[in-house]
Protein: Triosephosphate isomerase
Amino acid sequence: MRNTMIAGNWKMNKTYGEAAELAQGLVRELPGSTGNVDVVVCPPTIDLKAVAATLEQSDSSIALGAQNVYWEENGAFTGETAPNMLVSLGATYCIIGHSERRGYFGETDEDINKKAKALLAHNIVPISCCGESLEVREAGKHVEFVVEQIKADTKGLTLTSPSQYVVAYEPIWAIGTGKTATAEDAQEVCSAIRATLRDIFGAELANGIRVLYGGSAKPENIAGFLAEEDVDGALVGGASLKADSFAAMVKAAM
Ligand code: PEP
Structure:
């Protein structure tokens, strides 16, 4: 049985003080254990420390994630963040391959694969994003497109436990647009992702890897996605920026 995961991607929102405030709101809304739901928040890198401090001082079980990482250990890579720097701030998850990083910053599947390997070497769980554009979807090529992304992003990865890796299926046309994929759309691609993960890692591991849906997920529609067999949770952008709406999604999953 896979635990559900609800992960919040705060993107480039919240100053240091605002991030601390949002984290305080979340620990008030979600005290103690969240049972069968793993909750992760991914603030901007500059805010990780503020959020880590709030989480540490609470009894909450919310985990901390980053939104990006560089694959080198250290050195002359101005502006980048190494995996051990994330570890030192308490991050245990990191989003990679988000469509905004692929689209605006030119990240390739090869980069994403290097990031996944670097994170795994530091025991940080990648939340690896994939998803097609509207053009690809309208051409009916979305399943094969996403399957190719998964194959490239996982090339040469070795996992010893399913909890070491998370996939987020985020159709680009549904991100931040208010247009949601239907639960059936999500299931179609998430089940193809799981079949691909089975080919790559074997059934035992792949059956335990969480595959999330992302794209305008909110309290009103989360239950429909979670009811699908291969959708194990959500990566949430806009609706993760308010403690009450994010907590409502977690509670809907509990
Ligand atoms: C995201 O960017 O990961 C995302 C899913 O955003 P939104 O929920 O705002 O569509």
